[in-house]
Amino acid sequence: GTAALHTVYDPDLEEIRTTAVSPYDLFWEEDVESPDQSDWIGVRQFVTREIAEEYFPEVSLPKLGSTQETKSQLGTKRHLPKNRIEIYDIYWRDGRHAQLMGGKYVWRGKFPVAAFPVEVMRFTPAVGRSWGLSLIGPLLDAQWEYNKIRSQIIDNVDLMSNPVWMIPLSAQVNESQFTNRPGEKIWYNSAGGEPHQIQPASLPPQIYDTLARLEQDFERIPGVNKLSLGQQVPGVKSGKAISLLTDADAAQLNVTQDQIERAVRGLARTVLLIMKQFYSEAKQIRMLDASGQIV
Asked: Above 80 in pLDDT, residue 239?
C-alpha cells in the first residue's frame, strides 16, 4: 500500500535517475501519522562490498558473515547474499543529506537543490496509520475464509470418492487386499461379517452459497466490477448503466490518483531544479502524452 519515487543526479552518467522504492526499503519516524509529517525519510539500498569500497575507501566496512538477515520498518525480515552491504540515504526536510553504513554516518552534506528527493505515495491513506492500505489488504480476511471453505470442499470430495471401510475383525481381511485396481477381489470370512463402506454426508448447500458471496466480496470490497475487468455484467446492457458502473469504479481510485499526481508533481519539480543546477549543455528530451504517444 506504500511506495516512493527517489530522484537524484548521477554524476557518473551525468543524468537524473528516478527509481521506485519498495516499502520494505523506506524508513521514517515511527510516531507520525503520515510520511509528510516526518522530519526525515530514509531510503535503503544494497550494494556489493566492492562498490562500497570504491565509494568509501576511507571507511572501515562492517564484517559480513556467510548469511545476513535484515529487517524493514514494517517488521519483515529478508536474507541477503554474503557480500551485500546496506547503505541508507537519509534526507531531512531542511535540506540535509547523509549516508549511513554499518550504523555509522559515512557522509554528511546538503541536497544540491531546494527540493525533497523522495516522494511517498500511499494507495489508501488511513487515519492513525503512517503506512497506506493496499488494494488487497481489506481482502485478506475474505481470502482466508475462501481458502478454508475451498479446502473443506476438496476434502469432502476426496472423502466421498474414497469412503471409510467398516471391516469386522472376525472377517479376516488383510489390509493389502485393498488396492486401486478396478475389479479388485477381496476375500473375507462371511461368517465373520461382510466389509462395507460408510458413505459420508455431503456438505450442506449453505457452504456453496457462502463461497459465492465471498467471490462477490472480491469485487465489492475493492470496488472493482466486471466491466473494469473487461467482463460482461449480467443484466447490464444500456450504455448509460455501463457508464455509471465505470464511473463508480473510477471514483474508488480518486484517492490513489491524487496520491500519484501529487508525487509526480513533486518529482517533476525536483527534476527541473536538478536540471537547472547540473545541466550545462543542451539536451533533447522525449516526452509522452497520456496515451503514450511521443509529443
From this structure: no
CA distance 192 to 175: 16
pLDDT of residue 232: 64
Q: How far apart are CA 31 and CA 26, in angstroms?
A: 15
Tell me which residue of 112, 115, 113, 131 sits closest to 123, measured CA to CA. Answer: 131
- 17 touches 7 (CB < 8 A): yes
- Report the candidate in 101, 107, 96, 89 with the shortest Cα–Cα distance to residue 19: 89
Neighbouring-strand partners of residue 13: none
7 in Cβ contact with 16 (< 8 Å): yes
Calpha distance 208→156 (Å, rounded)? 13
Burial class of residue 41, CB neighbours in 10 A (0-12, 13-18, 19+): buried
- For residue 106, give the nearest of 27, 48, 53 by alpha carbon: 53
**pTM, two decimal places:** 0.67
The pairing of strands 124-126 and 118-122 is unpaired
What backbone torsions phi and psi does residue 227 show, to the nearest 5 degrees? -65, -40
Quick: pLDDT tens for 49-76.
Answer: 888 888 887 777 766 554 566 767 666 7
| Distance from C-alpha of 162 to C-alpha of 155, rounded to nearest angstrom | 10
Give per-residue burial for 189-227: e unless 16+ CB within 10 Å, then b.
eeeeeeeeeeeeeeeeeeeeeeeeebeebeeeebebbeb
The residue to which cell 448503466 is assigned: 241
> What long-range pairs does 88-92 form, CB within 8 A, spacing at least 24?
88/27, 88/42, 88/43, 88/44, 89/6, 89/42, 89/43, 89/44, 89/45, 90/40, 90/41, 90/42, 91/40, 91/41, 91/42, 91/43, 91/116, 91/117, 91/118, 92/39, 92/40
Q: Report d(CA 42, CA 225) in Å as an integer.
A: 38
Q: Terminus-to-terminus CA distance in the chain, angstroms?
A: 32
